[in-house]
């Protein structure tokens, strides 16, 4: 009888990063475009974006990835791809930010477990209310 193998465990990260100099540059159209392109980037990598929370100065992402997938590479891929496409799609943002990149270089992350997923999902979904925007 063939030995059954269990699928590899998945790991979850709540990742945040902000606009250049924390300038409030993520208005409704930029947010909609960001939400549209992030899943396309995920399809090219070893990860899934489970939640997206957006406020004018920063974004929150809940990322599910394989244990061997490199979180640094994933975040850099998201930042690089969205920065390029946002500035191409909204050229006025480069003037607003006075920069050729949309995001700051850094980011923050916290690892989560299956047990904490619903709490972090709710937190990410409630970002506008948390920041007094809803």
Q: Structural class, please?
A: alpha+beta
Number of strands: 4
- Uncertain parts: none
Radius of gyration: 16 Å
Give the percentage of residues in beta strands: 15-25%
Instruction: Report the mean per-residue pLDDT as an integer.
Output: 93
How far is the N terminus from the C terminus?
57 Å
What's the overall geometry? globular
**Helix percentage:** 40-55%
- Record the strand order, biggest sheet: 2-3-1-4
- The tally of helices reads 5
Brief sketch in words of this structure:
This protein is of the alpha+beta class and 134 residues long.
Write up this protein.
- This protein has 134 residues and is an alpha+beta fold.
- It is built from 5 helices and 4 strands, in the order E-H-E-E-H-H-E-H-H.
- The chain has helices at 28-44, 71-89, 92-97, 117-125, 127-130, and strands at residues 11-18, 47-55, 58-65, 108-112.
- A 4-stranded antiparallel β-sheet has the order 2-3-1-4, with helices on both faces.
- The chain is globular and about 60 Å long.
- The mean pLDDT is 93.
């Amino acid at each position: 009888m063939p030995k059954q193998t269990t699928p590899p465990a998945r790991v979850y990260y709540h990742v945040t990063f902000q606009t250049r100099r924390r300038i409030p540059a993520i208005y409704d159209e930029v947010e909609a475009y960001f939400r549209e392109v992030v899943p396309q980037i995920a399809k090219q990598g070893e990860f899934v974006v489970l939640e997206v929370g957006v406020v004018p100065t920063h974004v929150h992402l809940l990322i599910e990835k394989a244990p061997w997938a490199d979180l640094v590479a994933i975040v850099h891929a998201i930042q690089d791809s969205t920065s390029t496409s946002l500035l191409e799609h909204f050229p006025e943002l480069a003037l607003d930010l006075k920069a050729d990149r949309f995001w700051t270089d850094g980011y923050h992350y916290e690892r989560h477990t299956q047990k904490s997923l619903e709490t972090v999902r709710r937190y990410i979904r409630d970002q506008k209310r948390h920041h007094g925007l809803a």
